[in-house]
Amino acid sequence: MKMKLLYLSVLTLTHPVYAMPFQDSETVMLAESYQKDTSFPFAAYRMSEKLDGIRGIWDGQVLKSRTGQKIYAPDWFYRLLPPFPVEGELWAGRGNFHLVQQTVLDHEPAEKSWKNISFVLFDIPFGTGGYQSRYETIRNWISGQKQNPHLRLIEQYPVLSQKHLDHFMAQIIRKSGEGVMLKNWQSIYHSGRSHDLLKLKPYIDDEAQVVGYKKGQGKYRHQIGALYVQNRQGIRFYIGSGLSDRQRAVPPAIGSWITYRYDRLTDKGKPRFPRLLRERIH
């Protein structure tokens, strides 16, 4: 116990921005959806590309998903990680979420597949100080390391105006990116959803729980035609678009959660043109 306390004291003196190790029960910081507002304080935020990967939390000893599941990365990947907690996105480039999912969720790490994965860092979970301070701490550490394609810091840019934000968003979408993240430059780290972290996408996404199925017709008559789901607001509806042939044959289990996208809500509160994006990662 004395050795552990001594270690924490040395860490605090050397890197004062790092917080005490966090518990598995604590949740990470999550994003709210950005809503256009003429009074939005653009100068207080920084913007970056939203990466379509899997959130990774390094607590200094174990790499985990945002739900606390251990990620079985190869030893060489673990050796790249800093001696302090960091948070980032395990990413394989635009449009390659399926590759990240297959690689990162495998309990037997495939060396060849992990060569395609990068850990793009963006924060220190439950670190002290404002975001600018935490971000600069990661930057300073990375600048002292040998450059490696599997570990880098997300680029953050000042936001000058709504027009500037729209232009940045358009550039990312043209490159088949997912969207934009906005982060309050001076915000403290706290769990749960907050307007200190905002996301922008060309569509709206949400999560729902699978509660049933609808039988398919035509070429899908022996498979699933649609998922019957219920969102967090208690609204039930069908999702038929976005299902792969594999998912129609072996659909997400009853009780599991999925992420879907839609254009807007109808006057009855149901998502308009819902489309399955993916099964939720646990």
From TrEMBL:
SUPFAM superfamilies in UniProt: DNA ligase/mRNA capping enzyme, catalytic domain, Nucleic acid-binding proteins
GO molecular function list: ATP binding; DNA ligase (ATP) activity
Record's protein name: DNA ligase
Record-linked InterPro entries: DNA_ligase_ATP-dep_cent, DNA_ligase_OB, NA-bd_OB-fold, NAD_dep_DNA_ligaseB
Cofactor: a divalent metal cation
Enzyme class: ligase
Cited Gene3D superfamilies: 3.30.1490.70, DNA ligase/mRNA capping enzyme, Nucleic acid-binding proteins
Catalytic activity: ATP + (deoxyribonucleotide)n-3'-hydroxyl + 5'-phospho-(deoxyribonucleotide)m = (deoxyribonucleotide)n+m + AMP + diphosphate
Residue ranges of domain DNA ligase OB-like in the record: 215-280
Name of encoding gene: ligA_2
CDD domains hit by this protein: Adenylation_kDNA_ligase_like, OBF_kDNA_ligase_like
EC numbers for this chain: 6.5.1.1
Signal sequence, renumbered to the chain: 1-19
NCBIfam families, alphabetized: PRK09125.1
Keywords noted in UniProt: DNA damage, DNA repair, DNA replication, Ligase, Signal
